[in-house]
Amino acid sequence: MYNALNSHQPKVVVIGGGTGLPVILKNLKNHHVDITAVVTVADDGGSSGVIRDYINVVPPGDIRNVIAALSELPQTVLDLFQYRFNSKDQFFAGHAIGNLIIAALSEMENGIFDAVQYLSKAMQVDGHIYPAANEPLELNAEFTDGTTMKGESEITAADKMIKRVWVETHDKKHEPQAVQQVIDAILDADQIVIGPGSLFTSILPNLMIKNVGQAILESQADVVYICNIMTQKGETDNFTEADHVRVLNEHLGKNFVNTVLVNNREVPSEYIDHQRWNEISQPVKHDFNGLREMGCRVISADFLELKERGAFHNGQEVADELMNLIGRPNE
């Protein structure tokens, strides 16, 4: 537990991927904390997937968004970094400039980890951004019907109930491993934050890297899970909050989640544009008793932000609660 009388910044490690991670990081940046973002490298969709297919680098999309969230550069520069070509050019159409920069640096620096450290300095990042591994990983899933499938987008599109997921290197000659800086950050953390994000395709790919999962189990930090507000089609249909945590615990073989942040504000069904946000289906069901049976402290509050006809986490409210949990007054 962080002591406010101490002069050191509390160390917060946030693990995940997808669109939820930058929202939390951008708001945590406003607090006097030492942030480390551990970002998934198992994405295979969109511009990231096309770049990965061409030059076999770690998919850069999630990393790009995290860099933009933690950067201190002017917004005009960030807008350029995030700009996505709408040209009809066969190669550039749909690509974000930041993805191309990260891909180029990965070749120049012989790996994604050093590339991101170099770019973090150039982009004046407030904190640390660590790819979960220094090489692209392939996500695999086994479904409850016994079939298996490879690839993040394919797994979600299969629309089957997932039993478990794991990650592999491309050559399958060695186990995926995180670099030592990732492990050190987890072991030295005051707080480890998991989520929000797609349970099986954004969060678990990080935890399934063996030394990452082991470090989380060994850490003395409070492990906080930010539960998704909505279920995700093809991944967590009809899930309760306890179902999310149960899946996390089963994958690491131990009840390791200490605290769960749960949104308690009702999502107005008439507001949600289900056609636009076709990856979501319904609000995650409450099961506070199920969470407590797994040893979780439950923090239930209004974490909802309604925008663009969708339901999202209010990053400021979540960041404020994370600071409350480590005993630091909000600033």
UniProtKB/TrEMBL annotation:
Domain of life: Bacteria
CDD domains: YvcK_like
Keywords: Cytoplasm
Annotated SUPFAM superfamilies: CofD-like
One function term, GO molecular function aspect: LPPG:FO 2-phospho-L-lactate transferase activity
Pfam families: CofD
One Gene Ontology term, aspect cellular component: cytoplasm
Record PANTHER family: GLUCONEOGENESIS FACTOR-RELATED, UNCHARACTERIZED PROTEIN YVCK-RELATED
Name of this chain's protein: Putative gluconeogenesis factor
